[in-house]
Amino acid sequence: MWKSLMSSGRQATRPNCPSHSAAIIPRPATVRRNFIAAPRLCKQPPDTRDFDREALDPQPSEATKTGTDDQIAQHDSAFDPSNTSPESELEATEQEAKSKGKQGTLNMSGANKEANTWRGPQEGGPARNADKQETSKRGQPNKRRRVEVKEDGTHVTYR
């Protein structure tokens, strides 16, 4: 009887699987994902104006802030081959506009030297510290130490 108890005790302490094999983790054979075809709720209709190649949209371009390309093209001086410099084109356009009683359309173009020059950093900006003579300077805060400067320029700090 003791032998049967001892052998059953040894069997209970032994692992059921051999020690050299790794533990088996149960995993599903395949992962299922449901696919649902639903319409998008935030879908917007395409804007047909953006893609119509026949539609004309005369807006001021980047080079001419006050006049559209169509307005500039209406001037005869725009197609004059004898005027090739921007300054002469600007003068001719201004004279043509004055003769018709209108304002020139090339006021803010690249041909206008006054509008095309580099502006300083303070020009047209906010007036910061306008009442102060000096702005704040770099420096170190007072650390409550007494500093003595000798005549030769060296200094000694005392606590």
Automatic annotation (TrEMBL):
<feature type="compositionally biased region" description="Polar residues">
    <location>
        <begin position="1"/>
        <end position="19"/>
    </location>
</feature>
<protein>
    <submittedName>
        <fullName>Uncharacterized protein</fullName>
    </submittedName>
</protein>
<feature type="compositionally biased region" description="Basic and acidic residues">
    <location>
        <begin position="46"/>
        <end position="56"/>
    </location>
</feature>
<feature type="region of interest" description="Disordered">
    <location>
        <begin position="1"/>
        <end position="25"/>
    </location>
</feature>
<feature type="region of interest" description="Disordered">
    <location>
        <begin position="38"/>
        <end position="159"/>
    </location>
</feature>
<feature type="compositionally biased region" description="Basic and acidic residues">
    <location>
        <begin position="148"/>
        <end position="159"/>
    </location>
</feature>
<feature type="compositionally biased region" description="Polar residues">
    <location>
        <begin position="61"/>
        <end position="71"/>
    </location>
</feature>
